[in-house]
Amino acid sequence: MAASKKKTIASEFKEFIARGNVMDMAVGVIMGGAFGKIVSSLVNDVFMPLIGKLFGGVDFTTLKVVLTPASEGVEEVALTYGNFIQNVVDFILISLVVFLLVKGINALRRKKEEEPAPAPAPAEPSEEVKLLTEIRDALKK
Questions:
Q1: Can you give the residue range of the structural domain that contains 19?
Q2: Chain mean pLDDT for the chain
Q3: Among the residues of 43-80, which ranges form H helices?
Q4: Does residue 72 belong to any structural domain of this protein?
Q5: What are phi and psi of 89, to 5 degrees?
Q6: Residue 71 forms beta bridges with which residues?
Q7: Model's pTM, two decimal places?
Q8: What gap in Å lies between CA 140 and CA 47, rounded to an integer?
Q9: Closest Cα to residue 87, out of 67, 55, 57, 63?
Q10: Phi, psi (deg, nearest 5) at residue 101
């Protein structure tokens, strides 16, 4: 392989990073992380206290099954299923919002696709058609 055709890892990486879809993906990941924090706060600070109140004042973060109680210098071992419930609600809300966003975007795309394209201007007749038209008109006279 000629030295001029050989790509270095640095040049291949630069080419990879320069692609638009990689940058779009990076922005999406960053925005998704920030959005996840907002939804987690909404779940933890707004919805879960309301759901807990509906279930008789239960704080879901404290729900657990203790497998080994704490003893001298040893922490307890517990299954904290309350956190799991909170994460499931978190997931359901994020999924719902993403579903609604995708549904809205798809509706906008469909609406854009349904708009009729302007009718193309009629094509000018070919030389043969023009000649035949002239012959017809001459025969009519």
A1: 9-116
A2: 82
A3: 48-54
A4: yes
A5: -60, -40
A6: 74
A7: 0.52
A8: 85
A9: 63
A10: -65, -50
Residue that has been written with the tokens 């008789």 in this structure: 56
Alpha-carbon span 111 to 100, nearest angstrom: 16
Q: 94 near 111, Cβ under 8 Å?
A: no
Q: Is 134 part of any domain?
A: no
Query: Are 81 and 63 in contact, with CB atoms under 8 Å apart?
Result: yes
Contact indicator for 39, 94 with CB cutoff of 8 Å: yes
pLDDT (average), residues 37-48: 83
pLDDT digits (tens, 9 = 90+) for 103-139: 988 888 888 777 776 777 777 888 888 888 888 888 8
In-domain check, residue 29:
yes
pLDDT tens-digit map of 68-100: 998 888 899 999 898 888 888 888 888 887 888
